[in-house]
Amino acid sequence: MDSQTTPTEPPMLLEGRFSGRTEFTSLVRQAFAAAAAEGWREIIVCDPSFEDWPLGERVVVQALNDWSRTGRRFTMLAKNYDEVLRRHARFAAWRRTWAHIVECRGSASTPADDMPSALWAPGWVFDRLELTRCAGVAGSEVARRLALRERLNERLLKSSPAFPATTLGL
Question: CA distances (Å), 99 to each of 13, 108, 114, in order?
Answer without folding.
Answer: 27, 21, 27
